[in-house]
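This part of the workshop introduces the protein records we will be handling. To make this concrete, we reproduce a full record directly below.
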Amino acid sequence: MDRQADGSAGDANYGTIGRDYAMQRQPEPAIAAFIDDALGAARTVLNVGAGAGSYEPHDRDMTAVEPSASMRAQRPEGLVPAIDAVAEALPFPDGHFDASMTTFSVHQWTRLEEGLREMRRVTRGPVIVLSCDPDLVRQFWLNEYAPEVLAAEARRYPSPGRIGSVLGGNVSVRHVPIPLLCRDGFNEAYYGRPERLLDAAARLACSAWSFVTAAAANASVDHLRRDLESGAWDRKHGHLRTQPAFDGSLRLLVSLPRAL
């Protein structure tokens, strides 16, 4: 597997784009509640592509795997240190964990099926994947301003059907509404706060922005800034500023072995 200079596995270099990740990508409690519910009674839990530790429960026996040195270094005190490993080669015996989880990570994996099969191999119970449905990504208003960014995002996300077919068992796909003041700074988290996407640090924490040229990104931001200043954005989308939640592309896939 090809790895970036800081160990990042996949197509994004988190040694560059992940420097302020932990500040911009705080866990959102409403999303964490969906994950906690899906974990059920699991005591031992593996987090694959764990990053800076967002969404790791504090009341379970956690093991974290993260290939990027930059991301491992941003894990706060109180979380277990992350093991330097990749999803496609998990260093654990069969059925070692009660449950496993991965959040905003599968689109980074070089060999998706291999990584998912590894998660299932080492897990006795539920395997939980928080990701986005690529068929819905470009329905977000940002597509009017940054179509290349959302095209890159949609291209990278695997479909829930593809993920479920590899994991097997009893698979459910749950809609995860995004609250208006979402603390986790992915693109759709700013559905009602468009000004946040004028901030370069906020954009840098969304890896899809790193897949377009600086000229394209600047043109997108300039377009959004002009429409905010003129009121054009608000005339079309202003109702979102007070909408309590947004049902966008965010999905939680849960795979349970058929025996459970």
